[in-house]
Amino acid sequence: MFADLFKRLTAPDPAPLPDADARVALGALMVRLARTDGSYDKNEIAQIDAVLMQRYGLSVADAAALRAQCEVAETEAPDTVRFTRAIKDAVPYEDREAVIEALWSVVLVDGVRDDHEDAMLRMVAPLLGVTDQESHKVRLRVMSR
Fold first, then answer.
1. What is the pTM of this model?
2. How does the average pLDDT of the chain come out, rounded?
3. Is the CB of residue 37 less than 8 Å from the CB of residue 117?
């Protein structure tokens, strides 16, 4: 189902993603991060939906449908390192901090920094070309909401 997306993401010189594919890629990365601790709960699901609604101007139903696609894509996605590096190559730098903000919002939705989720995000941020310092600033911004 998502073979073309992953083929484009893992190409030697990926082009910028079309909007629909970028939505699935971001959503799948949020789902992967949420599942990292072995628990994918209703708060994380609601936060992913909220990010998708806000970022893309979707209705509740459309965000839930997109998230469902993202859940399937996450299970089919290549390993996190290749997947994330491919997103980095396809997503402009100025948009990557917003990706990190979305990821932190999912990690922190329950008010707990789970060690597994934290470690995954600490790995993902540099793979997206975002420094630890930038990710830290974004995390503090998300925590202050």
1. 0.84
2. 86
3. yes
